[in-house]
Amino acid sequence: MNIFRLTGDLAHLLAIIILLLKIWKTRSCAGISGKSQILFAIVYTTRYLDLVTTYVSAYNTLMKIFFLGSSFATVYLIYVKFKATYDHNHDTFRIEFLILPAVILALLINHAFTPLEILWTFSIYLESVAILPQLFMVSKTGEAESITSHYLFALGSYRGLYILNWIYRYAMESHYDLIAIVAGIVQTVLYCDFFYLYITKVLKGKKLQLPA
Amino acid sequence: DVDLDSKDEL
């Protein structure tokens, strides 16, 4: 564990808590892409299957349980509890165009052709594009509530901090995992446009308005 | 091989 990975995990935790609080407090999931949340639930399910087979640390196990629980809770809040506030007119990204390529790529490029490894690789590829429906929805509605932009900033920062963690681990432990690194870079790059808007607008108290 | 211990990451 290193400071970059720890702050990355905490940023990830913060993002999930911000989102849950936003939906619960406002009793509305307006502006939130349910499809991205479904993709995150798939990502955590396929990545954390080893939760029951391998014990890394209490921290690792607790975080996995929290990510799994909170992702399913978020999907439940969006599609069941606050279904009436779900904006399906703007949440129209075809997630099969993200899932299928991730499946194919995981079968072609992986570290080992075993079920657990293929599922882990699939989850890494899927996570790198899982935010696209949400970013697509923000671009369609042309704006995002500031709380949603804080959520996106924390979520985007988490994998960005993981990139620093991978640099650190390569330098200090000469450990690296190209699949995670390449996917993590793609994932972080997808947020760049949003990061620019967030820093130039939201932090100045303006609403996040995308150029129409 | 090298990638096994990247499974300690979330």
UniProtKB/TrEMBL annotation, chain A:
GO cellular component, one term: endoplasmic reticulum
Subcellular location: Endoplasmic reticulum membrane
Keywords: Endoplasmic reticulum, ER-Golgi transport, Membrane, Protein transport, Receptor, Transmembrane, Transmembrane helix, Transport
GO term, biological process aspect, one: vesicle-mediated transport
Transmembrane parts of this sequence: 62-80, 92-113, 119-139, 151-172, 178-199
Membrane topology: Multi-pass membrane protein
Pfam families reported in the protein's UniProt record: ER_lumen_recept
UniProt superkingdom: Eukaryota
GO molecular function, one term: ER retention sequence binding
Family that this chain belongs to: Belongs to the ERD2 family.
Protein name listed in UniProt: ER lumen protein-retaining receptor
